[in-house]
């Protein structure tokens, strides 16, 4: 029996936690259009908010970027579900994302993001808190608490930052909020009829916190010393 | 944005302690990135570095902005400085300003004569240094104080360089050159905007940085003040193209209210009067072609509650609106508010939900698991990945992940922070490196052979696909995920393998390791673990792996056991000599047993 990469183990665990709450798994391209990466998500053109993303743009192709978040997948899947008349619906995806920034022990140009969203008639911030509390308890243990703090993302309103209390310390875990009405409109939904939440954060970060892995770059060295987790059988 | 606690206290005398402010900001406004304790001339101060959110950058990149927010949030007194900003007398002016670019939304100018350039008063130096700014001279400092105090960038020209007292805001000419303050020359084009004099000299890149042509010198007596407002997109595009980062740019690109310019001019004039009591002020010229429109916003208490998932009452909302000095009309659960000019971020009901949510505090939101009968479908790509991964794991392959970026490929990224600018066209190349690395560590890993796999995306022109790559030192196979799963049974298990997640991760040593083998001949009735016991007892604390038996054979009435030991330290490079010392000791102890022999 071979050994599995810790991020695969954790991704599967996350998928399982969300599947139990009715989420459907979503997937999408890593080389994404600027529409799904930015503009469907209510990023204004030529706006400082674009600076938050450290984007890899593609040479000789102004329309594509390496996705900076997997909220692209959440948007694509919700759009599809809307067209198929499958609302209410909830999606979860874990996928590789890219940020154009210098690397260090907590920053890497590629990492995995866990991203999800739920849309229905009466989905609120309280539902978001319930879903994420349940998730983090499964990932980090039953003693974990979470809290929301104010934040900003173009695609959510209100926007919040999710913190989790793990081993007595509040740690920043992900960004989230209620999907902005412009986003709902952009994916063909009617914000006067449906509303919902979206969230997204690093999977690598959860792995580092959970297992006390000291350097994010260790995940992508192809080094088998990383695969320390034994299967149960 | 660095905020000096003492500066803030001018406007918020009842401000809670700096320590308490950190929590208040974190939970109700934005993240406090750091707090620095400072002592300046025996006076204590605390510098809070606030990560102002992009949707509030138009009103919170200033001490007064933060002060207004804080006093409304806590319902405490705000000291409005306006009444003390008074210019005793102002004379008619001959200054003429024209705006030729629609990207200039307001331009206010004022001539001041008979000023004296010199050092700033101590309080100015103290304020500027507290937030990491350097004092230059009284007039330049006054413009900086205004920007960090009320948020309005301001500029001062040397009047002798403003020919015929005429200022013009116009688009630059293609190829027009300007030498900026500090001496760097930039070449402009017609999408960019400058402030120019009557002879065509450009004095300033609008909203971004001043030129050295109209710079003040120590003998300057007469000046022109500028408080203006420029289109955020225009400023951003110009600054990006010219690669200029200034505090003025940062504010303008976040869409300042043109209404702020008037306050900026008032404050700047008052500061200059304080610094130069002999100064003679002329009237302000204000060119403001299209006044900022007043906007209304409607929202209902029900909708706010429905977004936040909290029962919010009319009374709570009215309390907030009063504290934030929003004019409003209330009618049967619905509010109509007049948005203050400085709150450009408020436009929709959802914006008000955020405003009310953060002011009340998101700790009011209670957890709820929605009881909805979702009908999720199976994701085919994920199913294939799980199937491929489980198959390879079962065949003894271990999983690795390598980098998407590499030295060559068909798709190249722009402006990478790294020298690897291409997206991989295959997994095999990175994979070979992984096999090499793991082979070098084979003794550390305690493996007999290295078998690995990776499932990942590769990129060719116009196409990306997920590939599966697996192999060992000799053979590497790479196929598409679809091909790999061609014969996947339709009823395969979608269940990932479960793990004991209580396992603790142990970081490995970054120092080199040394492998030593020892083979021992003993009588055939001696068990291997007896030999092992002696090795263990004498091997010291530098062995990271082993002793592991890797060979065993009989010859006549004797048996040979071969053990492998891997030496490695967590804090230094081990030497051959010290490892030899350990091996010699083990050999010696083994030989003490009658009939035992080290080969």
From TrEMBL, chain A:
Query: What are the residue boundaries of the Aminoacyl-transfer RNA synthetases class-II family profile domain, all occurrences included?
Result: 16-209
**Keywords for this entry?**
Aminoacyl-tRNA synthetase, ATP-binding, Cytoplasm, Ligase, Magnesium, Metal-binding, Nucleotide-binding, Protein biosynthesis
Q: Which NCBIfam families match?
A: pheS
What is stated as this protein's family in its record? Belongs to the class-II aminoacyl-tRNA synthetase family. Phe-tRNA synthetase alpha subunit type 2 subfamily.
Name the PROSITE patterns on file: AA_TRNA_LIGASE_II
* One Pfam family it belongs to: tRNA-synt_2d
GO biological process assignments: phenylalanyl-tRNA aminoacylation
What's the main place this protein lives?
cytoplasm
The broad enzyme category this protein falls into is: ligase
Give the taxonomic lineage as stored in the record: Bacteria, Candidatus Nomuraibacteriota
Localization per Swiss-Prot or TrEMBL: Cytoplasm
* SUPFAM superfamilies the UniProt entry points to: Class II aaRS and biotin synthetases
Gene Ontology CC, one term: cytoplasm
Q: Which InterPro entries match?
A: aa-tRNA-synth_II, aa-tRNA-synth_II/BPL/LPL, Phe-tRNA-synth_IIc_asu, Phenylalanyl-tRNA_Synthase
Q: Can you name this protein?
A: phenylalanine--tRNA ligase
Q: Does the keyword Cell cycle apply?
A: no
Gene Ontology molecular-function annotations: ATP binding; metal ion binding; phenylalanine-tRNA ligase activity; tRNA binding
Q: Which Gene3D superfamilies match?
A: Bira Bifunctional Protein, Domain 2
Q: What is its EC number?
A: 6.1.1.20
From TrEMBL, chain B:
Cofactor(s) the protein requires to work: Mg(2+)
Q: Which residues form the B5 domain?
A: 292-367
Keywords annotated in UniProt: Aminoacyl-tRNA synthetase, ATP-binding, Ligase, Magnesium, Metal-binding, Nucleotide-binding, Protein biosynthesis
SUPFAM superfamilies recorded: Anticodon-binding domain of PheRS (SSF54991), Class II aaRS and biotin synthetases (SSF55681), PheT/TilS domain (SSF56037), Putative DNA-binding domain (SSF46955)
InterPro entries tied to this protein: aa-tRNA-synth_II/BPL/LPL (IPR045864), B3/B4_tRNA-bd (IPR005146), DNA-bd_dom_put_sf (IPR009061), Fdx_antiC-bd (IPR005121), Fdx_antiC-bd_sf (IPR036690), Phe-tRNA-ligase_IIc_bsu (IPR045060), Phe-tRNA_synthase-like_B3/B4 (IPR020825), PheRS_beta_core (IPR041616)
A GO molecular function assigned to this protein is: RNA binding
One Gene Ontology cellular component annotation held by this UniProt entry: phenylalanine-tRNA ligase complex
- In terms of superkingdom, the source organism counts as Bacteria
- EC number from the UniProt entry: 6.1.1.20
Please give the coiled-coil regions recorded for this protein.
Answer: none
Q: Where is the FDX-ACB domain?
A: 509-599
Q: Name one GO biological process term.
A: phenylalanyl-tRNA aminoacylation
Which SMART domains does the record associate with it? B3_4, B5, FDX-ACB
UniProt xrefs under PANTHER family? PHENYLALANINE--TRNA LIGASE BETA SUBUNIT, PHENYLALANYL-TRNA SYNTHETASE BETA CHAIN AND LEUCINE-RICH REPEAT-CONTAINING PROTEIN 47
Protein name in the entry: phenylalanine--tRNA ligase
- Give the originating organism: Candidatus Nomurabacteria bacterium RIFCSPLOWO2_02_FULL_40_67
């Amino acid at each position: 029996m071979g050994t599995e990469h810790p991020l695969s183990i954790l991704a599967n665990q996350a998928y399982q936690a969300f599947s139990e709450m009715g989420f459907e798994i979503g997937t999408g391209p890593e080389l994404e259009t600027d529409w799904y990466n930015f503009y469907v998500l209510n990023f204004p053109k030529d706006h400082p908010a674009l600076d938050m993303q450290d984007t890899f743009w593609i040479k000789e192709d102004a329309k594509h970027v390496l996705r900076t978040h997997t909220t692209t997948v959440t948007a694509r899947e919700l759009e599809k579900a809307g067209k198929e008349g499958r609302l209410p619906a909830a999606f979860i995806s874990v996928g590789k994302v890219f940020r154009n920034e210098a690397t260090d022990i907590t920053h890497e140009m590629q990492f995995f993001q866990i991203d999800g969203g739920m849309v229905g008639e009466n989905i609120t911030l309280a539902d978001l808190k319930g879903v994420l509390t349940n998730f983090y308890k499964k990932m980090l243990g039953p003693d974990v608490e979470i809290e929301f703090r104010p934040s900003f993302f173009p695609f959510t309103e209100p926007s919040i930052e999710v913190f989790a209390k793990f081993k007595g310390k509040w740690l920043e875990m992900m960004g989230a909020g209620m999907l902005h009405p412009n986003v709902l409109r952009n994916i063909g939904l009617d914000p006067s009829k449906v509303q919902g939440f979206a969230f997204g954060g690093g999977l690598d970060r959860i792995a580092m916190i959970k297992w006390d892995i000291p350097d994010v770059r260790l995940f992508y060295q192809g080094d088998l010393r990383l695969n320390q987790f034994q299967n149960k059988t | 944005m660095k905020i000096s606690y003492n500066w803030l206290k001018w406007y918020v005398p009842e401000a809670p302690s700096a320590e308490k402010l950190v929590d208040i900001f974190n939970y109700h406004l934005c993240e406090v990135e750091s707090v620095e304790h400072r002592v300046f001339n025996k006076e204590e101060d605390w510098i809070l570095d606030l990560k102002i959110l992009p949707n509030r950058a138009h009103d919170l990149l200033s001490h007064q902005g933060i002060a207004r927010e804080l006093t409304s949030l806590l319902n405490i007194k705000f000291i409005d400085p306006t009444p003390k900003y008074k210019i005793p007398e102002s004379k008619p002016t001959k200054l003429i300003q024209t705006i030729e670019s629609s990207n200039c939304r307001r331009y206010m100018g004022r001539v001041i004569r008979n000023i004296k350039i010199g050092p700033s008063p101590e309080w100015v130096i103290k304020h500027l240094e507290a937030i990491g700014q350097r004092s230059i001279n009284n007039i330049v400092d006054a413009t900086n104080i205004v920007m960090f105090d009320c948020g309005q960038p301001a500029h001062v020209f040397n009047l002798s360089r403003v020919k015929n007292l005429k200022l013009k805001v116009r688009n630059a000419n293609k190829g027009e050159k300007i030498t900026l303050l500090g001496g760097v020359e930039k070449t402009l084009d017609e999408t960019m905007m400058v402030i120019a004099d009557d002879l065509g000299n450009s004095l300033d890149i609008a909203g971004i940085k001043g030129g050295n042509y109209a710079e003040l010198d120590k003998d300057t007596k007469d000046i022109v003040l500028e408080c203006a407002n420029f289109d955020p997109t225009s400023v951003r595009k110009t600054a990006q193209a010219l690669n200029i980062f200034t505090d003025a740019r940062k504010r303008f690109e976040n869409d300042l209210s043109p209404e702020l310019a008037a306050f900026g001019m008032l404050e700047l004039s008052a500061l200059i009067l304080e610094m130069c009591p002999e100064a003679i002020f002329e009237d302000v010229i204000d060119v403001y072609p299209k006044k900022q429109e007043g906007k209304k916003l409607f929202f209902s208490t029900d909708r706010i509650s429905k977004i936040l998932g909290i029962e919010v009452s009319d009374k709570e909302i009215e309390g907030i609106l009063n504290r934030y000095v929003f004019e409003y009309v209330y009618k049967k659960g619905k509010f109509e508010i007049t948005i203050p000019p400085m709150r450009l971020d408020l436009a929709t009901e959802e914006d008000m939900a955020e405003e009310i949510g953060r002011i009340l505090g998101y700790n009011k939101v209670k957890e709820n698991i929605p009881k909805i009968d979702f009908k999720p479908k199976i994701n085919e790509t994920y199913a294939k990945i799980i199937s491929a991964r489980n198959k390879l794991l079962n065949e003894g392959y271990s999983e690795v992940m390598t980098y998407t970026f590499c030295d060559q490929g068909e798709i190249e990224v722009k402006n990478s922070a790294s020298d690897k600018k291409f997206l991989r066209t295959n997994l095999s190349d990175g994979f070979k490196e992984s096999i090499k690395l793991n082979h070098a560590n084979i003794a550390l890993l305690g493996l007999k052979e290295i078998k690995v796999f990776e499932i990942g995306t590769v990129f060719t022109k116009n196409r990306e696909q997920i590939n599966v790559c697996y192999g060992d030192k000799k053979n590497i196979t790479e196929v598409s995920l679809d091909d790999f799963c061609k014969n996947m049974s339709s009823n395969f298990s979608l269940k990932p393998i479960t793990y004991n997640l209580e396992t603790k991760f142990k970081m490995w040593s970054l120092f080199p390791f040394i492998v030593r083998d020892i083979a021992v001949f003993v009588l055939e009735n001696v068990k291997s673990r007896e030999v092992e016991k002696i090795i263990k007892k004498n091997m010291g604390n530098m062995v990271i792996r082993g002793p592991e038996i890797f060979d065993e054979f009989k010859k006549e009435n004797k048996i040979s056991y071969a053990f492998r030991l891997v030496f490695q330290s967590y804090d230094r490079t081990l030497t051959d000599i010290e490892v030899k010392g350990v091996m010699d000791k083990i050999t010696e102890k083994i030989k003490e047993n009658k009939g035992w022999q080290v080969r």
